[in-house]
Design a protein that fits this description.
The chain is built from 17 helices and 21 strands. The protein is α/β, with parallel strands linked by helices. It folds into two domains: 284 residues, Acetylglutamate kinase-like (Carbamate kinase, 3-Layer(aba) Sandwich); 140 residues, Gcn5-related N-acetyltransferase (GNAT) (Aminopeptidase, 3-Layer(aba) Sandwich). Strands 5-8-2-1-11-13-14-12 form an eight-stranded mixed sheet, with helices on both faces. A seven-stranded mixed sheet has the order 15-16-17-18-19-21-20, with helices on both faces. α1 packs across α2, α4 crosses α6 and α5 crosses α6. The two termini are 43 Å apart. The mean pLDDT is 92. The structure holds arginine. Arginine binds next to β13, α12 and β14.
Amino acid sequence: MAEIRSVVNQVLSQLGASREARYYLKQFSGSDSLQFAVIKIGGAVIDEQLEPLASALAFLRQLGLMPIILHGAGPQLDKALEAASIVTQKRQGLRVTTPEVMEVARPVIYRANRILVHALEEQGVHAQGIQHGVFVCEYLDQDELGLVGHIQRVELEAVRDVAQQGILPVIACLGENPAGQVLNINADIAARELIWAVEPHKIIFLTGAGGLLDQHGRIISSISLHTDLEYLLEQDWVHSGMRLKIEQISQLLDGLPDTASVSITSVENLSRELFTHRGAGTLIRKGESIIEHHSINSQEREIAVKLLEQSFGRRVHEGYFDGLQLECVLRSESYGAMAIVLKGIDGLPYLDKFAVTPEAQGAGLGAAVWQALIHRCPTLYWRSRTANPLTRWYFEQADTAFREDKWVAFSIGIRDFGQLERCKVDSLARVESWVEEKDD
Ligand code: ARG
């Protein structure tokens, strides 16, 4: 335990935020040890980043976490087939696996598995390759696809045994039929079936790109399927490969408890993704629906006050809710993110408070409430302190921004110049709703 604590402290200093890292470590260690995470590793990552990969996984072991590793060997197999001058076909997106292809594939997959296990052992991690016995298959379509398996059942006994002995299980994507015929299985399908059987808290895809990319080639930080899926699938920059990925992940999460989440990240960013709120990669969750209120009862007030005080680090005036001219309140189901909108000047909506806990921000709930807000209030004005960490982000969202002393007045969708001026004056003149003013 003492050793683990010293490792944790080491990390914390690396990650620079001990509270966050501790928070997630506790969350991840809480569940049944097998249920922490399934990590799917593409064959290319084994080929190109073996040492950093092994040390990133070793780090999780040092923290006492026991992920289940599943890996593919696609690029290795492509190379080996090319070297053997075997041309393979794909049908229904799957590699047609003739006996000649299988003859090449089996040793290639075994080798990738051994290489990863060996690299882990080199880093002091006790690991064991599991090449058979997990995926019980039937032929998917023997005439069309040859030796390709259709998974009937996932056997976790060997995986459990190994993990319970403190040994890291490293599973290869091969299955057998009940008669023992080895069958090839697509790594994405194997991952899905394994994940459904294990029901892990976290699902991690380690890729070279380290996340899903938006139209500017930047990593999309989080996707909340509930609110973003439809929008994303409509975008023309979401190309077919990405669309398929998003749909597969959505289907994957549909078969799991709401708390499960998928992180697509890279080897270098794995620990930052896992142990910080902000993460480093793309986090995908089912998400929460966004709820609109037109009044706040006393119980909700209490929750709202807590959220406001937690996110702003200040105390709200006792009577804050009493005289509010409420336009609406938008919040995520779990109250991790909330917008309080008042009736402002000229009947325009005034955003009085926008509060998001750091966890909800990491989970993409702040962005989800913001989107709902802009949809609900296409014209909106608000103000923010220059010192508020969200102010920079507001600059990106707003159409207009006007800075005065410690405040910035923002607006969206308001075109009339006179009205803009009135909004600015109104927002800057509003009374503080916090008890004691810090001088910043
Ligand atoms: N550390 C948390 C998790 O692993 C939050 C990660 C947030 N990541 C992101 N790309 N927004 O679940």
